[in-house]
Amino acid sequence: METSRMSLSRYSAMLTASLLATACASTPSQAPLSGRWQADDSKVQLQLKDGKLSASAGCNRLFGPASVEGGRLVVGNLAGTMMMCAPEEMAAEDALKKLLASRPQVEQKDGRLLLKGDGRTLALNAMPALDGGKTRFIYVQGKTAPCVGVAPMQCLQVREDKNAPWQHHYGQIEGFTPEAGLNYRLRIKEFDVANPPADAPSRRWVLDMVVESEVVKP
């Protein structure tokens, strides 16, 4: 009789443990954070996809593993390009590295991403998705030039070959704001625009990555 009670007790404990394990396994996990964001008051860009992070403060591209755990962004060891840029860009890059290393709190709301850590809050806005676009590499001048579409306007100066003459681009590059005194090489995504207005381009360009920037000699 005593043996039967012990067996029943042991069976009950095993059943309870099994039910708890099943319940935990069936609990939906938090959806991984995924998307592209850009700060509205700086050059900081950040992308999260498939457990990988890519980030930049306007100079080098940083990349490495990342996940959201307990409402915090946990970033692994970051690798990156090794360009030398303007002192203010290098300072912004160091600040971004410190923020990412601090396991910042993550809040996402209304298309905005907030990272809170290292004594500050970085606010970023959602950028357009890049799925399905054609990848192109282009050079862009930091200054625009007068051009005429339907009316006189200012056009970006672009080219795909570094030795080719500059050409007018009559649209914008979404997510990119040029700075006078710098030239850029960009990786962009190109999308066809169905039935564009008469004064608008038939293709839409979206910034994917600033590959490099260089100071233009006077």
Automatic annotation (TrEMBL):
Q: Which InterPro entries match?
A: DUF306_Meta_HslJ (IPR005184), DUF4377 (IPR025485), HslJ-like_sf (IPR038670), Hsp_HslJ-like (IPR053147)
Ranges for the DUF4377 domain? Answer: 139-212
Pfam families, per database record: DUF4377 (PF14302), META (PF03724)
Q: Which UniProt keywords apply?
A: Signal
Q: Residue limits of the DUF306 domain?
A: 41-121
Descriptive protein name: DUF4377 domain-containing protein
> For this UniProt entry, which residues form the secretion signal?
1-23
Q: Which Gene3D superfamilies match?
A: 2.40.128.270
Ranked from the top, the taxonomy reads: Bacteria, Pseudomonadati, Pseudomonadota, Betaproteobacteria, Neisseriales
